[in-house]
Every structure is written in structure tokens, then in C-alpha cells.
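Quick start: read one record
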Amino acid sequence: MRTLPRNDPRQYDELADQWWRPDGAFEMLHWLAEARARLIPPARHPRAVLLDVGCGAGLLAPHVAAKGYRHVGVDLVRSALRQAGERGLTPVLADAGALPLAAGAADVVAAGELFEHVPDLPGTVAEVCRVLRPGGLLVLDTLNATALSRLLAVSVAERVPGVPRGIHDPRLFVDPRVLTAECARHGVRLAVRGIRPTLPGLLRWLVRCSRPGRARIVPTWSTAVLYQGRGTKDGQGRRSAGPGVNREGG
């Protein structure tokens, strides 16, 4: 694989065959997607929209398929979006900082492992909150801007066989206090909690063991490495009749 700058989206094209491999480079993202889905309730009306920002290849899809949403996925990487479309998402090629949706179009916005990749955190948070309807739900997970997080997510993780190097730029990791304040500026009251993989699954992952079984992501007392956020946008408002988006390539 050629050497690219840290956090360069082109890395995902070169890893396109890894998304759905059980033991592939994105194995831990599957664990996180399952945990994120547990924060998303069933749809409250037949036209409810779940906007999956930074959807990748659609790893959230199997965990929300029965919840009744129109699942719209936004990503910058065409190769990932093609796979997301095969999993039932409506794919939209766009930057998270310039979402091609009307204000209030989404009933739920999921932003999984997104904010630690964006160079403009305030602008991206503003967009994610803008497209969320009043009373709608934002769910997210990301990496904290701590020395421990940088050590584990970069220095340690990138030494694990099969884990790609350079996916993260630790300078972009996000302090939960900053993220909470940015969400509050746009009317979303965000509550955060620490999360971590279960220990047996994490140990299997660290040694790339072939034994079956996937780790679960569970709550923990510390937000020092990984954390989830869940928040509701202020106001009730009228729900959107539809997302009004352009499909990928359309």
C-alpha cells in the first residue's frame, strides 16, 4: 500500500475489501456500530429518516434494518458508498461539513467514528445539528483528545497485525466537553458516557486470534479513550415529509 497522509480518505479505497470481513481491518467498527444501534429507538412514523453521517460501507445497517427507518448514508468515499447501497442504504456522496439535506430532514442522525476525522469540528457539528428535526435524536461515538487515547488508538493499535496505519490523525481527537458545548450551541443537549470493548474480545483482537466470537462494546466509567453521545434537539416542530437528498452520483 502506498504511503498517504494521516486521515486521508483515499486510504479507504485501498481498504475497500476489508469492510465486511469478520477479521478485517474494520473489525472494531462492527462492534461500535452494534453499540451505536442500541441507542437508536424504533421509528416513530412510517417516513422516519435515519441519516448515517460517515456511514462507510453501511456497518450500521444490519443492526437497524428492523427498526423501520429510511436509512440514508453520507460519505466521501465512493467505494464504501457502493457497498452501503448494497446493504440497503440510500447512498449520498457528500462532505459531512456540507450535507445536501434540508434543515430538519432527519429524525435520527448517527455520527459514528466521524468527529475524530473532520478538520472543521464546529462546522461539521453545525451541519449535523441543522439537518436534525426539532425533537430528533443525535447519537455518536468518537475518540477523546487525551494522551491515553492517542497512545491506545494510534501507538498501540497501529502495531496490531492487520490494522492499517494512518487512519487517524490524533490531532483531530475530540474533547467531550468541546463536543457537548458545540452541540449545545445548536440546540442539542448531549449526554456522554465512556465505552470500551469487553476484555476477552479485545484480547482476541490484539493478538488477531482466529477463535470465533465478537466483542461487545459496553459502558464504562471513563471517557478517556472512547465515548458515546446521545442527545435530543430542542423544540418539537413539524416533522419533515422527506429527506430531499440527492443520491450518490445523482
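The chain has one domain: 9-204+219-231.
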